[in-house]
Known about the structure:
By secondary structure, this protein is of the alpha+beta class. Helix content is 19%, strand content 13%. The strands form 5 sheets. The chain has a 4-stranded mixed beta sheet. The protein starts with a helix and ends with a helix.
Amino acid sequence: MTVRPDSVRRKLLWGAALLVPALAGFAGVKWLSSRPAAAPAAKVAAVPKAVLGDGVTGPKDMAWIPGGEFLMGSDSKLAQANEKPTHPARVAGFWMDQHHVTNAEFRKFVQATGYVTTAESVPDWETIKVQVPPGTPKPPASQLIAGGMVFIGTREAVDYRDYYRWWAYKPGASWQHPNGPGSNIDGRDDHPVVQVSYADALAFAKWAGKRLPTEAEWEFAARGGMEQATYVWGEEFAPGKEQMANVWQGQQMAKFPIVSAKAGGALGTSAAGTFPANGYGLFDMTGNAWQWVSDWYRADQFVRVAKAGGVQVDPRGPSDSFDPDDAGVPVNAPKRVTRGGSFLCNEDFCLSYRPSARRGTDPYTSMSHLGFRLAMDQKDWEASKKAAAKTADQAQVLARGG
């Protein structure tokens, strides 16, 4: 049985009588702790030195992803069914944020626009009812409370099916209070913004003049020039005993989801740039916080494109959603793809800190381990430079009294 924290949100919003067990992408089956035989060395393409934007030759804090053809997905023993089979895809070059959109960047957006996030808004029944069984009655207004899903952990080992033991829907949780009203982001300006929905990511992207990457673009960029490597840095989880990502494994002594009260309780994000960048100069492509991408989610999408044959060129994903594994939720309930895993991923329950791992998430869900990063096309960068130059010229004319 799969279990998903976004469905805990639905359960709490509609009342205790309804239970929809689903935890997008965590794959409620327990991962086998035994490792497969050592994989052959990952094939490394000819990757030039990372090309980073400086605000003049390219957008600041973005890296140039050269594009090319690659094998998307995975046939590894570690891969889930929704990652299989591998199939050829090709993407054109584009720019991508070197790191997640941070709290400081999101704050500038909110201050400039007055934007109110999904988590800060009273839940809208019209967006919730498509995620629940047909005929589900509308809950009373008293149960429609603004907030988000928060990882709280446990103090002892629990049945992995008992997922609401380590997740809670907390009224008042938001990007400024990622773990609920008693939390804040003081001193965390350079951490990924979390508790943001797909709708929030789109709003930020429009303001920033960027866009969400497609699923194919995201995976190509995450691989950093290595073809079919298990991790974004290679085959070994901790080469030379060096931790390469903010994930549970290697960071926490206790077994998931046990957290230590002495260590401050529940875990969280790390600052951007804490761990090494991949071959393209991108940080935290896996681990730290899950990332929204633009595609609709279908559990069978890779099977469909593989059967179609040929090379998928700049694929934009399916036109609808399909997820038969999310118990109690309509199979065609709207879901967007999220990628990369988070600080909660571990080899026993969630092995999603791999470049091929994927899941589908309700686009109006906000969680304490879910954020995003953006992409930009070269033509849009050139257009923004021209617009900035024109604005500067107009300012000079006005300054001269013209």
